Amino acid sequence: MRTSETIRLVIGREVSTRARSRAFRITTIVNLVLVLGFVILFKLLGGHTSASDIGFTRSAEPLAGPVVSVGHAVGQNIKPSTVDQATGEAQLRDGKLDVLVTGTPDGFQLTVKQDLPDNLRNVFTVLSRQIVLNNEITKAGGDPATVNSAVEHAGFPVNSLVPARQYQAARIALAIITGILVYVSIMLYGQLVAQGVVEEKASRIVEILLSTIRPWQLMAGKVAGIGLIGLAQMGLTAVVGVGAGVALHAFTFPTNIAAGAAAWAVLWFLLGYVVFALLFGALGALVSRQEDVGGATAPVLMALVVPYILSITILPSNPTNGFMAALSFVPFFSPMIMPMRIALGVAPLWQPLLALVLTLALIALLVWFAGRVYSNAVLRMGAKVRLREALSSH
Amino acid sequence: MTDERLEIDRLSKRYGEVVALRELSFDVRAGELFGFVGSNGAGKTTAMRIALGVLAADSGEVRWAGHPLTLDTRRQIGYMPEERGLYPKMKVGEQLTYLARLHGLPAATAREKVRLWTERLGVSARLEDEVQKLSLGNQQRVQLAASLVHDPAILVLDEPFSGLDPLAVDVMSQVLREKADQGIPVVFSSHQLDLVERLCDRVGIVRSGQMVAVGPVDDLRAGDTVRYAVRAPQAPAGWADGLPGVESTSYVDGTTLVVLHRGADDQEVLRAALATGPVHEFAERRPSLTELFRHVVSVDPTQAGEGK
After folding, report:
1. d(CA A205, CA A210)
2. What confidence category does residue B16 fall into, taking pLDDT thresholds of 50, 70 and 90?
3. CB of B107 less than 8 A from some CB of A
């Protein structure tokens, strides 16, 4: 029988048993809920730029046009409506209106429910000054319209010393969701490999399996099979997240930022999974009982937990942190840190590419390491096999 | 019958200070049912694991049809390890199909064989159940099915009868006999010596990693001496001592056990017995495999290593 066929059989078993497991269904739902929750958060973050509702009584209505154009100039969308005084006040109380404008264009008054929001205070301050200014220009014999159109085109260039990062709040949220999903998935599927290896050892079926297939074929099939399941889940989460964001108009930033972050997250999950699955698989082979898995895999767990904790605590408040930038190139840590830096927009393309090459080199090394440890330890039942023995025997 | 013998040739294995096997040799011929017996820790399991390639020997070789076993030939072995092993959370049917396919069977054939063997072994109603939901006896039947579903060309079974109810023992015995009759070498280990005696064409007794006796049960029983039980109630103690060819005697409740050199004249003994009075019984006592086993494994190892 050909090797590829053997490995395909092993992969097939892993995929079909894992895909039907309750754990898989539950984690898929949790992932989707999490990512949809973040999409809603994006929607709320974008809410600041939504329109303010301003009501004008019939006498104040001529002000509606100027208010909208001033609002536009200071970056505030305004939705004007015409109401009578009583209805307007009722709508203020209901929160349907933010401000009610009464009086005449030359002497208007504002009514609010409680406070005038700062952004609207700016609008009306600018407006009232402009009305005064227009009157003075008229008195001086000028044409306010000419002056206003000249003023409207005034502007100034801004030079940033550090390239400006747009959409900062959204990027931070994107980085956090990316970081959580990559970390949780690597943890989950990496541990599944360790448990799967020990399950075969504890149930002794490994002896039957290895009388007909080679250890590395079993290990490779297991890592690939569980990886496929993880990849499918991660891919689904990414597609649903980006898709829902687009469908709900939740992204106030270009969609390709979200799509790019999601694609990189899936790739880094895959690389991180392979690194940790190989390690977990090798260390799992050292023990014979399910309850010893935790102890055997603890050291590797730290290499997974520490970079995650660091990046989730440091990066959102300090995206350009130099220490985190350096750590994001360290092969064991890249899978957790790099996707967050990519989402934050602080990693130029060469950085993830370099980290990717380094991680691939590590994987090549781990394939050798895991193959050796696994082959030497997996048939040795009973007491925990020492790592050094597993590496040196045969 | 083809010469598809399974040869275990001078296997040695030590675990640190402990010698598990020392130049253990035997062969199982095609179509032969070979019983492998020995005390716990004698080396039976070690030898079988080496044959299956899940343990490496320090020296020696296992051959089939004249060639050392490879992964491809091992795939044709039906193996039942001492420590039973199945995926506890996998359904019986899927599990057996998977194992059959790993041994190289196409999917359709695998399913067909699974149906056949689970029916034969009486677990076909449980195909859709997880293994862990089955009783131990039924798990054992599934385990046996796992070693048979791929139509093995060799059977190596470590303690296949342990934990089986009498009905399952009968089915198992039939299956093993049938497999041997199809011309494949079948070797199994067991502590149920009466079963081995009844079932096997040949037996091998292993002690401390060495084969101390190997051959058909009848041949093994035919040692240098022949034993007779003589019931002569009136015979005085010591009546048979000193008769020609008598090696030893023992007297219990009117029955005398006389051990004679092979070839000595038993009629002489009978005449001596009749001279003491009536003789109600005069019969050759053939040792059971159990007695043989006790005798063989209790002998000093340095002597046992030389003879058969």
Report:
1. 9
2. confident
3. no
**Size of chain A in residues:** 394
**What is the per-residue pLDDT across B118-156, written as a single tens digit (0 to 9) for each?**
999 999 999 999 999 999 889 989 999 999 999 999 999
Residue from B49, B50, B54, B105 to probe the interface with A (highest A Cβ count within 10 Å): B54
Q: Which residues of B touch A394 (CB under 8 A)?
A: 56
From the list A314, A315, A275, the residue with the least C-alpha distance to A165 is A315
For residues A265 and A252, the answer to whether their CB atoms sit within 8 Å is no
CA distance A153 to B69: 89
Q: Do A203 and B90 count as a contact with CB atoms less than 8 A apart?
A: no
Determine phi and psi for B237, rounding to 5 degrees: -60, 140
In angstroms, what separates the C-alpha of A381 from chain B's closest C-alpha? 10
Residues A291-329 have pLDDT tens digits of 899 899 998 999 999 999 999 999 998 998 999 999 999
Q: CA–CA separation, A86 vs A58, rounded Å?
A: 12
Enumerate the residues of chain B whose CB falls inside 8 A of the CB of residue A206. 85
What is the distance in angstroms between the Cα of B156 and the nearest Cα belonging to chain A?
A: 11
Q: Of the candidates B52, B79, B85, which has its C-beta nearest A203's C-beta?
A: B85
Could you give the angle at the alpha carbon of A382 between the alpha carbons of B129 and B204, nearest 5°?
A: 85
Residue with tokens 């032969």: B32
pTM for the model stands at 0.77
Q: Packing angle between helix B92-102 and helix A3-19, nearest 10 degrees?
A: 170
Q: Are A208 and B99 within 8 A, CB to CB?
A: yes
Q: Which ipTM value was assigned to this complex?
A: 0.80
At B221-274, the pLDDT tens digits run 777 778 888 888 888 888 888 888 888 788 887 788 888 887 788 888 888 888
Q: Dihedral through CA A88, CA A89, CA A90, CA A92, nearest 10? A: 90
pLDDT at B1: 44
> Do the chains contact at B81 and A208, CB–CB below 8 Å?
yes
Picking from B28, B25, B49, the residue whose alpha carbon sits closest to that of residue B203 is B28
